[in-house]
Design goal:
This protein is mostly helical and 403 residues long. It is 80% helix and 0% strand. The radius of gyration is 20 Å and the shape is globular.
């Protein structure tokens, strides 16, 4: 993999730390700003909403820009927003800043996914995607627990300052190592024609599955801290360890998913999805047992990101007719889930169903993804339309790029 791709992964690490770290800072933010825990959880949903809106809009706006200036602009805005977030004492202002930060994050990730795919061979998009998502999972392993530790030691604002500082070496690295090439293919195709790629049935199904699976992941992850302290009986000091365990599983899942996604996505998506749904239900039942909870935190992290990263790579294969907006489509869809998941989990908490409720919501979302995949597969068998996403790569990649 090109060295520049790993530098993009460094920037994604900083951004992933910001996106995920509220799972360990939510209770502290709620106390400091005088809001409920479910309201603090809305900060995660707000970030996801900004990602959903920002991905296609920012990708379209940057279509005629060279990639390096676009990446630097988005990352610079992201840095500035976190400085402002560390200074504010208003929950409303913090909510707005999270949306603005997400817009910048979305633009960066959309351009980065497209740039990563352009840096590798056409059949290696799964591995390129795994390098970028490796930054996200390393954020779970190191960045998020460190943010939670800083929040406990120095307050949640210290975590925002840390994210801003993380962006500095990423800016320098991108400035000197990422090619400044303009995507001439994207300029020639145009926004309207690229947006037409959304009409592909296989692509729409892949986006739906990605939203549902990611919604399940974020639903539980957002409320993981109160779950393990109130249900599993672990002390607040163990929360960073639990978050790191989830991140370690996520990293393992991305590594495996990246190697399998380009050659055999069928067993991973079908088998992994079924085990993932059952795992969330088992977690809900066994959450009161500390050892079982810790084991399931690792396993569910691994399964969530193995299936999720594979779906992202399948979006890139299915949307080859949209060289710029393919990354935006993937980013937006997965953050639809990231917005809906915490919102649904928050509703379940607010309704008084207890801290296990987000786990049941996660199980239901993955089950819905499995049902949707099955229904889509039956429809394709009776039509002359494109083959289902599960077939892409499983037949040597012959279906890649057809809509």
């Amino acid at each position: 993999m090109p060295f520049a791709l790993h530098l993009l992964g460094l920037a994604v690490f900083a951004q992933g730390t910001s996106e995920f770290m509220l799972s360990g800072l939510g209770p502290d933010i709620a106390r400091d700003l005088g809001v409920s825990l479910s309201a603090a959880g809305a900060l995660t949903s707000a970030f996801a909403v900004g990602m959903v809106v920002g991905a296609p809009v920012c990708a379209a706006l940057s279509m005629r820009w060279a990639r390096r200036p676009a990446l630097l602009l988005f990352l610079g805005v992201f840095l500035a927003v976190h400085v402002a977030g560390a200074l504010t004492s208003s929950f409303g202002v913090l909510l707005v800043l999270r949306v603005l930060g997400a817009l910048a994050n979305a633009g960066f990730l959309a351009v980065a996914l497209t740039a990563a795919a352009a840096m590798v061979a056409p059949h290696a998009k799964g591995r390129a995607t795994s390098v970028l998502l490796g930054g996200v999972t390393l954020a779970c392993v190191a960045g998020v627990p460190a943010g939670a530790w800083l929040g406990q030691l120095l307050g949640w604002r210290a975590a925002f300052w840390a994210v801003a500082l993380l962006c500095v070496p990423a800016v320098v690295g991108i400035l000197y190592a990422v090619p400044a090439d303009r995507d001439t293919t994207a300029v020639r195709v145009g926004v309207r024609r690229e947006a037409g790629a959304l009409r592909g049935a296989r692509l729409r199904l892949t986006l739906l599955l990605g939203a549902l699976v990611n919604g399940a992941t974020f639903c539980t992850f957002t409320y993981l801290a109160p779950l393990v302290t109130h249900v599993s009986g672990l002390g607040e000091g163990r929360v960073p360890v639990v978050l790191a365990l989830f991140g370690a599983g996520s990293f393992a899942g991305v590594v495996v998913g990246g190697r399998v996604a380009d050659v055999r996505p069928v067993p991973l998506l079908v088998g992994g999805g079924a085990v993932l749904a059952g795992g969330w239900a088992l977690f809900a039942l066994a959450a009161g047992q500390p050892v079982a909870a810790l084991v399931l935190v690792f396993l569910q992290g691994a399964l969530s990101f193995a299936v999720g990263s594979t779906l992202i790579s399948q979006v890139l294969y299915a949307a080859e007719g949209a060289p710029t907006l393919a990354g935006a489509f993937a980013t937006a869809a997965f953050n639809v889930g990231a917005a809906f998941g915490p919102w649904a989990g928050g509703l379940a908490l607010a309704a008084g169903f207890g801290f296990r409720a987000p786990l049941w919501v996660s199980a239901a979302l993955v089950a819905a993804a499995l049902v949707s995949a099955g229904a889509g597969r039956r429809v394709w068998r009776t039509t002359a339309g494109p083959e289902p996403v599960a077939e892409v790569g499983g037949n040597g990649g012959k279906g890649a790029g057809r809509d």
